[in-house]
Amino acid sequence: MITDIMRRTILGKKEKFLFEGYREGMIDFESIGNEIGLYIHIPFCKDICPYCPYNKTVYNRDMAGRYKKAIINEINLYSNILKDKTITSVYIGGGTPTLMVDELKEVLGLIKKLFCFSGDIGIEVHPAEANARLFDMLKDMGVNLVSLGAQTFNDSVLDFLGRGYSSEEAEKALALVKGYHFECVDVDIMTNLPGQTMEDIRHDVLRAYSHDIDQLSVYPLIVFPMTNMGEAIKKSGLKRYSNRDERRILAAIDEISAKSGYKRSSVWTYGKEPGSRYTSVTRESFVGLGAGASSLAGGYFYLNTFSVEEYIKALAQGKLPINLVNRMSQKERMIFWIFWRCYDGVIDGSRFTRLYNAYLKKEFPLLFTLLKVLGMAKEEGQRFVLTERGRYAYHLVEKQYSVRYLNDLWQASMNRPWIEEYRL
Ligand SMILES: C[S@@+](CC[C@H](N)C(=O)[O-])C[C@H]1O[C@@H](n2cnc3c(N)ncnc32)[C@H](O)[C@@H]1O
Ligand code: SF4
Q: Is residue 188 part of a domain?
């Protein structure tokens, strides 16, 4: 509902977004800018968490071996398509990417060989996977950013989430990774979970900071209707936090963070002061490799097939494994950019002008007037900086965007490997 209203008022668009089945030649790769990030999706996990909306399947050694070959084929295809571009970052997510750490060594080696690469290499680490061999290998591969998905240091909440490790193991993983002196160690924690008290959240944040981490990422639970948790909550009527409670939680985390020497570096991240280093997957332009990976490049937003077997098959035939393509109008590209800059907490008007040869306030007069009048953003020179109220409003929009758009698009993609047309 909110998302539909926003589409109509901000974009002036009555019809739904159109995703077309990919046909060769339909993406103008030449239009992609010179600098791009690479995202690599590893869709394997040992166990499946009930709240997880991402594309994943239970790990199987044979399938992982074939998957590696397919990624190598995909990189080879892109090395021709993107031959003059510079890769400015590589982010490896999942799933549980470290289940394929041996294979990833080869994959990263190939990227460095085929592309002009200069930038950070980040990876997500599941606490149950953390061990000295893994971190030795990551260091050796040139990984410099590690994100540990601790989620919580409370055993009963970990049980509720079905995470398969104890709070003691999560803390041990954190102590271990800290000893490796990666440039940035980020810890993910989840909040707003049914049964979690404010005291539990406070405890989790303080436990994470007690390890002198570089960054904390806070994820308020989003219940995706397609997940097992979504269905269970619907059936049982389990009590959730109200919007007002959610806002109180955020304010409390801000306060604890400030007292612990951490400053908000984006809507959901806190960085150590001084020398805070913000790491994010929200790049302006990125190409996604792997089953279910999405790409935002040039005027296109596109998704690979979510089916691991179909992904492997397409690449064995020398084809790009792209399933759906959304050709974005200039206005849509702009609003998508603004949406992700809101996540960063700052919308820089001069960057917007450089990218689109247009002016923020001229293109979206209603949006920026409302942001100011409603106290959601402050204008500082060329920049709009989100206030506490704006950040909370963004959280509500992001929740709607996830539950309304991502849930439906991902569910459809999981149900059918190749889709001719999809309207959202
Ligand atoms: C791409 S995910 C996966 C990371 C890794 N597989 C793991 O589970 O540790 C990155 C983060 O998203 C968060 N997350 C996952 N599902 C979520 C949900 N339904 N709502 C809010 N945050 C979620 C978790 O904090 C997780 O660490
Ligand atoms: S939350 Fe992480 S570990 Fe759990 S199923 Fe999803 S990707 Fe796998």
A: yes
Alpha-carbon distances of 392 from 255, 345, 396, rounded to whole Å: 15, 11, 7
Q: How many domains does the chain have?
A: 1
The type of residue at 181 is: H
How far is C-alpha 30 from the geometric centre of its chain's CA atoms? Answer: 25
Spacing, Cα 49 to ligand 2 middle (Å)? 5
Asked whether residue 129 is domain-assigned, the answer is yes
Mean pLDDT value of segment 403-414: 94
Q: What's the pLDDT score for residue 31?
A: 87
Assess if residue 325 is contained within a domain. Answer: no
- The number of the ligand 2 atom at minimal distance from the alpha carbon of 126 is 3
Report the chain's mean pLDDT, rounded to a whole number: 92
- pLDDT of amino acid 274: 64
| Domain extent for 93 | 14-272
| Pocket, ligand 2, Cβ cutoff 6 A | 45, 48-49, 52, 54, 56, 94-96, 126
Residue at 400 is within a domain:
no
Which atom of ligand 1 is closest in space to residue 220's alpha carbon? 21
The pLDDT of 160-186, averaged and rounded, is: 96
Measure 374 CA to ligand 1 centroid, in angstroms.
Answer: 31
Ligand 1 and 59: CB distance under 6 A: no
Distances (CA, A) of 174 to 133, 199, 218: 15, 21, 16
Q: What is the dihedral of CA 174, 176, 182, 185, to 10 degrees?
A: 0
State the pTM of this model: 0.94
Indicate if the alpha-carbon torsion angle 216, 220, 221, 223 is positive or negative.
negative
Q: What are phi and psi of 412, to 5 degrees?
A: -60, -40
Helix (H, G, I), strand (E, B) or coil at 381: coil
What CATH number has the domain bearing residue 240? Answer: 3.20.20.70
Residue 94 Cβ contacting ligand 1 at under 6 Å: yes
Of 4-13, 14-23, 84-93, 308-317, the poorest mean pLDDT is in 4-13
Q: How far, in Å, from the CA of 149 to the mean position of ligand 1?
A: 7
pLDDT for 277 equals 62
Could you tell which of 44, 100, 123, 188 is best to mutate to test the pocket of ligand 1, judged by most ligand atoms within 8 Å of the CB? 188
